[in-house]
Every structure is written in C-alpha cells, then in structure tokens.
Design goal:
alpha/beta; Cobalt-precorrin-4 Transmethylase, domain 1; Methyltransferase, Cobalt-precorrin-4 Transmethylase, Domain 2; 3 domains; five-stranded parallel β-sheet; 10 strands; 42% helix; 17% strand
Length: 271
C-alpha cells in the first residue's frame, strides 16, 4: 500500500498516533528531501520510542520526477511505502501530487492520512475567512511574474493564503501596502513552534511593525478578500490573449484550470 503521511510543520508532538503506526509498517519512504525525512524518523524514534525501521529512502522532487517514475517498478510498489513531504500535508505545494496522479493513472491503491497543514492553520488563526479561501502557495521570487501574482491575490473574491520566506516577507507586505495600504493582512511565523508569532493589521501598518521585527522563520500570510469584486471572471481565452510572457500566462491558466504549469507552458510555446 502507498501511504501519504503528513509530517509536523514545527512541533514534533503534532505527529499522529496513526502516522507512527503506518510508518512502523513501511519498508520504503519516498521523500522530497531524504535528509529531512531521515532526521524526522530519528527524532520520532528518540523522542517517542516509535520503533520505525524504514530501510530505503528514495528522493522525489521537481528535478528528478522523470527518473523517479522511470525506475518505479512492481517490486517497489509491492511493499508498504510512505510518502512524506518536508513538512505538512503531502501533495500541497509539494511534489507528492505527481505521485497521487501516477497512482490514479496506474490503478495503484493509496491512502491519505490527515494531519498538519500550515495553510489551514493560518486561515483559522487569521479570523479573515468564514468558509472559502484560495491557496496560492509560494509566489514567484522576483520580477514581473511576482508583481502579477500579487495583483492577482489582491483581486480575489476570497482570502488568499501565501507561503513566504523570511527574505521576502517584508517586501511582500510592502508591495501590498503600495497597491492597497488599507488591505487587512494576517501573518504568522514559525507556526506551532516555541517562537510562533502572529501579526495582523492594515498593510501600511504591518510594514512598520515588520521593519522592527525578527523575520527569521517560515511564514504564512492571509490577505483579506477584495472589497471590489469583478462581476465576471477572466476567461482562458482572455488570458491567452494577454501581452505577457508565456511563463506568466501558464501560471495564470494553471490557477483557473488546475492543470500542471509546465504542461501548459509547453503547449503555449508550441502554439
């Protein structure tokens, strides 16, 4: 059986009893980063006497997907396998989604365990969401693509959740403040860890607070929904007609279609 096992996003005690039970039964772990995975297993064994004895750690990340699936065979799939992301829910902003699709396509039995998720935690902590929200993950790092992504987040009819690095968290809030200084933002760093810290306020005020704050750590940001909702959503044809780079088009099309960004990009440059 192929299991997708959520891992703690900060506090080791957030691992579930069922996750430990499944990991004990697995011989193979497929990991985004095998070093992180091995470290987690060692910590679980030391801290909780978990008795996890995984013998084979196999990497799966964006740079080795083709090689990984080419080498995936019946012998491997006949064993109990755990897929674990570096932190949190497998398949969310994570290469595990390609393994889910592979299992579906090849009629392989799989099971998803419930567990820690930074996006959902930040939404609940923000108080900005009654029901619907949009998860955007990590935005592009720089340039026009990043500017477009921020504008997109500000135009949404629902609160938007963004993951951000400590190097870019201040510039993200500054960019929002430049466009909409009164837009309400919630930010949380080091969620579930000892030095978890929450921030909330208008973008222009949050900039001043973050300029004086220790920004080290992992961040999740929730942007309140737009007060000016367009009555008609942009269509696929309208995005294709935009005079922007194919890479930016592919990302926008992926948001509204749910299709893989790389596949859309390849189709655009071939057209």
């Amino acid at each position: 059986m192929l299991y997708f096992v959520p891992t703690p996003i900060g506090n080791l005690e957030d691992i579930s009893l069922r996750a430990i039970k499944i990991l004990r039964e697995c011989e193979i772990a497929i990991c985004e980063d095998t070093r992180v995975c091995k470290s987690l297993v060692n910590l679980l064994n030391e801290r909780f006497d978990a008795n996890i004895n995984i013998s084979n750690f196999i990497p799966l990340h964006t740079h080795n997907e083709d090689e990984f699936f080419a080498n995936l065979n019946d012998e491997i799939l006949s064993k109990n396998i755990a897929y674990m992301s570096d932190a949190g829910m497998p398949g969310i902003s994570d290469p595990g989604v390609s393994l889910v699709r592979y299992a579906q396509k090849n009629d392989i039995k799989y099971e998803i365990l419930s567990g820690a998720n930074a996006a959902l935690l930040s939404v609940v902590a923000s108080g900005l969401c009654d029901k619907e929200f949009v998860f955007l993950g990590f935005l592009p790092n720089t340039g026009r693509d990043r500017a477009l992504a921020i504008q997109n987040a500000l135009s949404l009819a629902y609160p938007a959740v963004i993951y951000e690095s400590p190097k870019r968290i201040l510039s993200l809030v500054q960019s929002i403040a430049n466009l909409e200084p009164e837009r309400e933002i919630f930010a949380i760093k080091e969620a579930t860890k000892k030095f978890e810290t929450k921030f909330k306020g208008a973008a222009k005020n949050l900039v001043q607070i973050l300029e004086k704050a220790n920004l080290n750590g992992e961040w999740a940001v929730v942007i309140s929904k737009s007060a000016n909702i367009a009555t008609q959503n942009i269509t696929k044809d309208e995005i294709i007609a935009l005079d922007i780079a194919p890479k930016a088009k592919a990302k926008l099309l992926s948001k509204i279609t749910g299709k893989d960004v790389k596949k859309i990009y390849d189709e655009l440059i071939k057209a």
